[in-house]
Amino acid sequence: MSPLRAWSDPLAEHIVGTYFALRAAMAIMAVGLPLLLVAWSLLDPDLPVLGSMSEYYYSPARDVFVGVLSGTGTALICYRGHGTLENGLLNAAGAFLVVVALVPTDPPGQSDFGLRMTVHAVAAVAFFVSFAVSVWRCADDTLDPSRDSERRIRRYRRAYRVVAVVVVVAPASALALVLVLRQGALAVLVVEAVAVMTFGVYWALKSYELRGTELAEQP
Predict the structure, then answer these.
(1) How far apart are CA 102 and CA 130, in angstroms?
(2) What is the pLDDT of residues 143-174, one digit of tens each?
(3) Are 153 and 140 spatial neighbours (Cβ–Cβ below 8 Å)?
(4) What pLDDT is stored for residue 107 in this prediction?
(5) CA of 109: how far to CAs of 36, 40, 144, 178, in Å?
């Protein structure tokens, strides 16, 4: 029996609802950020579509960029992982994401890879790596062979592995493109968007998995 069931139903529902709301917020912010930035450029004739998400720090959309990344990073730190390892990795990922938000990349058209750019790039890579390791190592800890079917476990485990790979390969590809091109480009923006949106999709997927688990545990 879930420990929450030892408490009153309204309190348990409130705690579980808050927990799922935190996941939903991270999913919405992550999936929505690239779409919102591009939409801003399409609606503002004075703001072209920039070469990377980070370059929007120097645009009128700066507050949106910084606010969403800072909010998502804070949510990751507040979120309690399922176990010490996951909790520590997500705390680290959240802290790195706040650094990405607050330490800007070089302005559009400039790429001297000085200290500021280095800190931004390292923090971004560390964020994705920390998150990917947490997904690869810990995401399927909530799956239970005594309760979940083998097919369900295999399906979610495969999906989590795909998420972990994408959130490492996509930003690594974006960084490689920047190093080769020495500036942002549409390809960089697209690859970054894929990585960030995959992060958001993971939280929606995880919520769906746990909702199914919650229903399965009900008498």
Answers:
(1) 19
(2) 888 888 889 999 999 999 999 999 999 888 88
(3) yes
(4) 82
(5) 22, 20, 51, 11
Q: Cα(155)–Cα(201) distance, rounded to whole angstroms?
A: 15
Confidence (pLDDT) at 148: 80
Within the chain, residue ranges assigned H as helices are: 9-43, 62-78, 84-102, 115-138, 150-181, 186-217
For residue 174, which of 61, 55, 23, 52 has the smallest C-alpha distance? 52
pTM reported for the whole predicted model: 0.86
User: Token pair of 114, please?
Assistant: 């000085």
**How many folded domains does the chain comprise?**
1
What per-residue confidence (pLDDT) applies to 216?
Answer: 46
Q: Which of 119, 98, 109 is nearest to 51 (CA)?
A: 109
If one compares 147 and 179, the residue with the highest pLDDT of the two is: 147
**Distance from C-alpha of 188 to C-alpha of 182, rounded to nearest angstrom:** 11
Residue 204 pLDDT > 80, yes or no?
yes
| Structure token digits, residue 45 | 């004739």
Residue 44: give the domain boundaries: 3-217
First to last CA, the chain: 10
Res. 209: pLDDT tops 80: yes
Contact 209, 201 (CB under 8 A): no
Angstrom CA distances, 56 to 2, 77, 110, 128, stand at: 45, 24, 14, 19
Task: List Cβ neighbours of 142 (8 Å cut-off, separation of 6 or more).
Answer: 82, 209, 210, 213
Find out whether 65 and 56 touch, Cβ atoms under 8 Å: yes
